[in-house]
Amino acid sequence: MYEELIEAAKAARLRAYAPYSNFLVGAAVLTRSGKLFPGCNIENSSYGATICAERVALGNAYAHGERELAAIAIVADTPTLCPPCGICRQVLFELGGGHFDIVLANLRGDVRVFTPAKLLPEAFSQAFLT
User: Fold this and answer.
1) Where is the CMP/dCMP-type deaminase domain (predicted)?
2) Per-residue confidence (pLDDT) for residue 126, from 0 to 100
């Protein structure tokens, strides 16, 4: 179902800048309008400035004016599926509105689909700020 999205994430993974960890991650966002936006992890020697592939892909979609997400694929070369970090889970929950698919895949062909609420139950949201 998400083959094209996973392939876009695999291609983005190869463009990662990861000279410190050598851990390449690719992501691709599919919007409800049918457009694909890739992202890859971009490391920095000041580690806190590193940007995860998921946030790069989401930022790419948002920078192009796309706000309605259908799915995101996240791909890493790991023996098991690699879920997003905590910061990315929060960003996925908020920017995706909680109503889209998060597709985890690896280079071995394993694939599993999650919802934002499954990966981040009891998420912090804008509702707490009012």
Assistant:
1) 1-127
2) 83
Domains of the chain with CATH codes: 2-128 (3.40.140.10)
Q: Which two tokens stand for residue 55?
A: 């946030």
Residue 1 C-alpha from the chain's centroid:
17
Annotated binding residues = 41-47, 52, 85, 88
pLDDT of residue 99: 86
Please give the annotated binding residues for substrate, written as ranges: 41-47
Q: Give 85's DSSP letter.
A: P
Which residue among 7, 54, 68, 94 is the active-site one? 54
54 is catalytic: yes
Q: From the CB of residue 48, how many other CB atoms can be counted at a distance below 10 Å?
A: 5
pLDDT in the model for residue 77: 97
Chain segment 60-113, per-residue pLDDT in tens: 999 999 999 999 999 999 999 999 999 999 999 999 877 899 999 999 999 999
Helices (H), 14-123: 53-63, 86-95, 116-119
